[in-house]
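Lab meeting, item 3. Inverse folding demo.
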């Protein structure tokens, strides 16, 4: 299933009897360790590089109430619902998410102590009472941890007027899973405050976690103030 926040969309479903039906659970013996193999066909179309959960469920068919009953899962002696996440998989997109030429930044900023991530392109547009901010991150080296992206609408006094902070792809592509060579295409939505139109504002972006922000660098190699890169204005 998809790992985006609040998105439990079932993307691939495979059901099988153990051993392909040749060794049903009714003949299993205490202490046995069984090896079973399954092949799952990925969808033909995957919109973006993202992380999916690989979940395991055990069903009992045609029980007294009708339909399939999910058996409870117990992990290290603790009840854990009815599904166990075996692993999280990086799933490649069907097509490369190249940014439009008009979104390319002439002086791309970099983020991380060793400039691990470069912001290659950014695009700002208005959609009703929201700003849509498209970002394209090029990964030079893994960040090795989970960071949140901040997207702030700032006023002329450098005060935050509105924010659209989030984990990349709404949780579907955490920075921990970014790898060298990845191009991460993402979009953030910033709610416009009622008085935003009465002042000159700009949009700044960057990364943070509990212990602070990742360093940000200009294309000239100099550190950026407040570890934030200004990607455009909105008036």
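The presenter then showed the designed sequence:
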């Amino acid at each position: 299933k998809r790992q985006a926040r609040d998105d439990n969309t079932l993307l691939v479903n495979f059901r099988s009897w153990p051993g392909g039906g040749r060794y049903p659970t009714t003949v299993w013996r205490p202490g046995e360790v069984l090896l079973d193999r399954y092949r799952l066909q990925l969808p033909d179309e995957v919109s973006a590089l993202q992380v999916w959960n690989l979940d395991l469920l055990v069903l009992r068919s045609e029980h007294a109430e009708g339909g399939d009953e999910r058996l409870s899962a117990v992990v290290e002696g603790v009840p854990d619902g009815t599904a166990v996440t075996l692993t999280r998989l990086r799933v490649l997109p069907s097509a490369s998410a190249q940014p439009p030429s008009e979104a390319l930044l002439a002086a791309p900023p970099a983020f991380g102590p060793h400039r691990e991530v470069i912001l290659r392109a950014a695009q700002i547009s208005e959609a009703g009472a929201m700003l849509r901010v498209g970002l394209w991150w090029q990964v030079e080296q893994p960040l090795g941890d989970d960071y949140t992206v901040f997207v702030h609408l700032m006023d002329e006094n450098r005060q935050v007027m509105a924010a659209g902070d989030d984990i990349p792809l709404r949780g579907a592509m955490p920075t921990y899973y970014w790898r060298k060579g990845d191009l991460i295409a993402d979009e953030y939505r910033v709610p416009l405050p009622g008085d935003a139109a009465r002042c000159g504002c700009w949009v700044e972006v960057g990364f943070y976690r509990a212990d602070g922000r990742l360093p940000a660098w200009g294309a000239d190699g100099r550190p950026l103030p407040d570890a934030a890169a200004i990607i455009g204005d909105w008036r």
